[in-house]
Amino acid sequence: MTTLTPNPAPRPGSVTTDVPPAELIWWSATRMRDAVASGEITAVELMTACYDRIDAVNDRINVIVHRLPREQAIALAREADRARDAGAPLGPLHGIPVAIKDLVDVAGMPTSRGSRAFAGRGPRETDVPHVRKLREAGALLIGKTNSPEFGVGTVTWNDVHGITRNPYDTARHAGGSTGGVAAVAAGMLPLVDGSDSGGSLRYPASFCNAVGLRTTPGLVPAASGPGAWEPHSVNGPVARTCRDAALMLSAMTGTDELTPLGHGLAATAELGTPGTTPIRLAWSEDLGGLPVSAEVREAFRSVRRTLESAGVDIVDVDLDFTGVDRAWRTIEMFGWFSLLGRDPIDHPEKYRDDFVINVTEASAYTTTELVEAQRRRYEVYVQFVELLGEYDAFVCPGAPVVAPPAEVPWVAEIDGTTFDRYFQWQRLACRLVPSQHPVLAMPAAFGASGLPVGIQVVGRYGRDVELLALGERLEFVLGVTGVRPELG
Asked: What residues are labeled active site?
């Protein structure tokens, strides 16, 4: 039996360990759920605490861009309390406030997608599949979280709602495109959803000391339409801990007749008791030679030392990423063209410049380029299947830098390497997408600047809950999961 040793080193900020009831917003989502179900607290008390926190800090972070009026949210919570008191069956998220990324439809709420082309539309009539499942699980959907236009890029800014800022330093980006990570990190909400085709769940989690899971394709039912056949972009949970992410995942998964990739895929279970078997990790500091800042490299090395001192076996590996950047780019850009056709080309004034360039590029792809991208994607999948037959997981940095300044549209230089397209600095995340394996971004350290540094942990295909269970064991050793931002 292997017993992991927790990291006793002091960390910046205050650590949430035994949180008193007066600090309800910092309870874990799992504890909130259990407390509401048992009657220890009411859903009304929880909703009130979350709205008080939103009122206190959202103006400084700008993450929740639409929300229900307080009285309407309280009415939802009161209804949840009545259902509990009446002995009704309770779902896994009964009474838990949740917000949804402003790329997908929620019945009764607007969807701007961060775009001038969609701003001003009225409330949507239906929920997308995973939102419907969250609602059926008892989640109380209270609003929408910010995203860059159509989720383009790994920092959140747009011409409709502005910049989402980092709770650990409001002069910095929170990351993106799942800007909602900032709401979880700031204690506004225990859970939000996100999506990921090139790091959109993982970069913000790394910047904000949170957990974001890029799920196995099909596990969480995607929106209907042409994208339902493409495994490139997936939806997943955001939380402060791996256990809470597993709780949300259990409510998001399952089949949907309009999402063919997920047909027959079983829903997941919540985490059980942490395991005690030895852990063996494959390791890469730069994912095949990508530029990584000195601050992140040093923090990542400290993470390795901490894990090894706790008994984790770590082995450096070299993977073949030849042609993977091109494959990701081809699939990503063609996805944008499939979504909107020529409209961004014919009406560029309605869209962000980067998005117009993406669609224009994709409109000229040849069948040979598309076939080559699919071929390379499968080869990467096989490479990771073989690798994870020998190791429990593969680990690399969560992002190449700490959270960048809020005024920059994207990071244009890292360690002397310059970039002329927004996606080039996010290749630490993009290179893992073609593998189709689940990727967990989780808290790992704080850099010399005092800002969070995360890690990416790649698990076995379809074994997302197993990956989160491993992440929970690593959380125990690394000891930074509970470090809160100093927002007051």
From this structure: 101, 177, 200
